[in-house]
Prior knowledge:
Layout: E1 6-11, H1 21-31, E2 41-43, E3 49-51, E4 69-74, H2 82-99, E5 106-108, H3 109-112, H4 123-130
Parallel strand pairs: 1-4, 1-5, 2-4
Antiparallel strand pairs: 2-3
Amino acid sequence: MRKINEIIVHCSGTDVAGYDFAAIRHDHKRNRGWSDIGYHFGIDWDADIHILRPLNKIGAHCKGHNRHSIGICVLGLQTFSHWQMKQLCKLLDTLCYAFGLSRGDIYPHNHYNPNKLCPVFDLEAVMNKYMEVQ
């Protein structure tokens, strides 16, 4: 297993209901030439958590930070449900526990790329509301 020292949170950048992880996988493979979808986990419109890429494989979600990180994508752009945010924090709690991480090891994608808006929700406020891990 590779060393994990951070978790990076993303959003899909669209509120189109038909845009799902299969569409993202297709885009990443066909249009970007990647071997698979770049994220390890995803949270869909129904707040279901999807395993998208094995954790033992390096992601392709944040240039310069893929080797030791886990990428999570929440479907949405302007509309995120309470349940999506709750599931995100449940997943973050679980991953922090599993890898010995803290909230200080969780970053929004735009922390590393200020030209990106992703994720468009206030990750810190969401974590303050729903997370157990400090």
